[in-house]
Amino acid sequence: MTDIVTGRPRAAFPALQRLYRPFDTSAETLLRVAAGALLVTHGFGKITNPFGAVGMVESLGFYPGIFWSPLLAATEFFGGILVAIGLFTRPAAFASMIVLLVTVYFHGIVKAEGLAGAEKSILWSAIFLYFAVRGSNSQSVDAKLGRQI
After folding, report:
1. What are phi and psi of 88, to 5 degrees?
2. Are 103 and 121 in contact (CB under 8 A)?
3. Is the pLDDT of residue 21 over 90?
4. Domain of 132?
5. What are 59-93's pLDDT values in tens digits?
6. Which of these, 34, 1, 6, 40, lies nearest to 21 by C-alpha position?
7. 100 in a domain, yes or no?
8. Domain count for the chain
9. In this structure, how many other beta carbons lie within 10 angstroms of the beta carbon of residue 42?
10. Residue 54 located in a structural domain
11. Is the pLDDT assigned to residue 2 strictly greater than 90?
């Protein structure tokens, strides 16, 4: 059921709603910052050697690797920064989600690791899908600039 006043689903334990409500924006912000920051750390090695993944991306069928490898590095590193600070959140999260879906394919199919190898990438893809659809919240650079792309 939905609460008529707030338009939100009714809490199973209404007495706890006062506890949850102040933290919903902060929890979402924490998830966005953590996801972005972890993507930055993952992309750091690639951004310091942007052509280091040429062979890997070509082995996945992305030719020419000399184009795709720096794009991968930039997407992970700069996309992570943008998501973390909440600037151009939707396009940055969408690009990051695409990169992570490729890693699902890489680990699950190419390396034949199945779900055990792909599960982290599936989870990360879902997190970035959320922000690609939702965008950032009031605790973001996008909000401070008065826009939501």
Report:
1. 50, 45
2. yes
3. no
4. 34-144
5. 888 999 999 999 999 999 999 999 999 999 999 99
6. 6
7. yes
8. 1
9. 16
10. yes
11. no
Q: In this structure, what token pair is assigned to residue 104?
A: 């699902």
- Supply the pLDDT for residue 104: 94
CA atoms of 2 and 137, how far apart (whole Å):
22
Residues in contact with 66: Cβ distance below 8 Å, sequence separation at least 6, in sequence order: 51, 54
Which residue carries 């990360």 as its tokens?
Answer: 124
Contact 93, 132 (CB under 8 A): yes
Q: Say if residues 87 and 140 touch (Cβ distance below 8 Å).
A: yes
pLDDT at 53 over 90: yes
Say yes or no to pLDDT of 112 above 80: yes
* Residue 7 resides in a domain: no
Rg (the chain; Cα; Å): 18
Q: Look at residue 6 and tell me if it is in a domain.
A: no
